[in-house]
Amino acid sequence: MGVAVGLGILAINMLILSPELMAERGQPRENVKDWDRVLTSLTTFPILALLIVAGLDERFGWSPELAVAIHLIGLAFIALGQGLFSWAMTSNLFFSTAVRIQMDRGQTVVSGGPYRYLRHPGYVGMIVSLFATALVFGSLWALIPAGLAAVLFVVRTALEDKVLLEELDGYQDYARQVRYRLLPGVW
What we know:
Elements: H1 2-16, H2 19-26, H3 34-60, H4 68-91, H5 121-136, H6 143-167, H7 171-177
Helix pairs in contact: 1-4, 3-6, 4-5, 5-6
């Protein structure tokens, strides 16, 4: 069921994302921050570990059997998290997997869509999806690598926000209007 939801979300993204954004995401990038290359690589490990731990948990029965309702709640939160991630991508023509100021594309501040409420909604969507994935698989142990990945996304958010504040024209004004990076009322 989780795989079907994931494939459905992928199909929807392929239909709604602009060709320009897809091209940006698939191209080698200039001026990517060195720390981002390292952090992106590091984030891969807990995400893969989440899947491996969930599989081992299923095989060896480390977690207690979760109620079907928990699995369904996990599916709902995967859909919500990925929906937020997709909304962020479609709202931001400069959405990228690499932290860089896209001078070559005339990057400007994006303040529409979910960016009206949070400065980094794509990361929120990913973090929600990671925790929900552990629930869909019924693995309480998989929440540990999900948490590690979430911590790395929080660190990346802080570093990316610093770059945007220092290097993107208009971002300081935007940050004064939209105060929260990831969690309204908190941070």
